[in-house]
Amino acid sequence: MTETTALAAGQRAMGRGFGMAKHKAIIPVAAAALLLLPGAAMGQAWIGQVVGDMMAQQAAAAQELACMKGQAMNDAEIAEARTPAPAVVRGYWEAVQAGRSPAAQFVLNGRTRWTGGGQTLDRTGLARIRDGFAASGNRLAEQPVGFVRAGDGQSALGQWQVSDGAGRPVGLYHILFRRQQGQWLISTMELVDARTWVDPVVQYCHQPGDVLPFRMRNAEQVLAYSERREARARQRLAETVRRAETAEAAAAANPDSSRRAEAARAARAEVAAREVDLAERVAPLEAARREMELVRADTAAWEAMRAAGMARLAANP
Fold it and tell me: What is the pTM of this model?
């Protein structure tokens, strides 16, 4: 094999395997081809780089899955977004109370939105904000009633209560924060009247509300896959048992035939192997069923909480 041929073989094999765990077996093929190169050190270095890339991609996929299933960032990373947020909201409050533009508290880009009083403003309209929540006598809570940082770290979501002078709820600021030049600022703000239901703040990965639907889809897919694997293993075991019974019957009918006796032993050994294979597939199926039950329970609890909240608001207009 020439140097060019070996390198091409290695590249083709590795190229098919990028980011796909099921193709781990191609690594030895590529390695064997590359080790035939005169420049063995170059081949080994290239193998190391590609294997490292594949491992990094697998780690990234695992991290994305954990994020989409609701894994939060660590406390220090959450605090990095949470700590400056009250001062930003207070700055907004003081600006609108004084009739000034709160633009300094916003990330100013195409995603900037302020929604309240029946109008939605983009970054060009922040100076026109007329915030009824900031009326004289109303009070802004110093701390949020709920706050999370996205699992991917790119944004954060918080809610701040506004009350009147008697302490009665006026509404909520529902705020999405993003970073601009290292500073956490408001990206979108929605004014939610106290008589209107708004979902509480819960952990998300990329966009608010993305975790529970993903968990349901993922649980359904994993359960269906696990059921198919278990059914195939059970079917193969049943077929193997039938073959073993046939082989054992043939051996019993011809006790002097060593060939048939050996066939019966081999068939019984295959049955044992199929039983192990089935057992290995039953455990993941049971785990998938438990996860499905948990996701359904979480979904039902979320929907019940939302329905109860809406009912309370409707009963007290």
Answer: 0.76
- pLDDT tens figures, 185-231: 999 999 999 999 999 999 999 999 999 999 999 999 999 999 999 99
DSSP one-letter string for 151-197: TTSSEEEEEEEEE-TTS-EEEEEEEEEEEETTEEEEEEEEEEETTS-
Label the pairing between strands 113-116 and 119-121: antiparallel
pLDDT of 150-159, one tens digit each?
999 999 999 9
What average pLDDT does this structure show over 44-55?
74
Furthest-apart CA pair in the chain: how many Å?
105
Beta bridge partners, 180, equal: 183
Dist CA 258 CA 277 (whole Å): 29
H or E element in which residue 249 lies:
helix 211-253
Q: 175 with 161: CB under 8 angstroms?
A: no
Distance (Å, whole) CA 77 – CA 149: 8
H or E stretch covering 146: strand 146-149
Options 3.10.450.50, 3.10.290.10, 1.10.150.20, 3.40.190.10; CATH of 75-193: 3.10.450.50
Q: Which DSSP category does 118 fall into? A: T
The residues spanned by each domain of the chain are: 3-68, 75-193, 211-315
**What is the rounded distance in angstroms from the CA atom of residue 157 to the CA atom of residue 179?**
12
pLDDT of residue 315: 77
Query: Where is pLDDT greater, at 183 or 28?
Result: 183
Classify the phi-psi angles of 117: left when phi > 0, otherwise alpha if psi is within -120 to 50, otherwise beta: left
Phi and psi, residue 74, nearest 5°: -75, 165
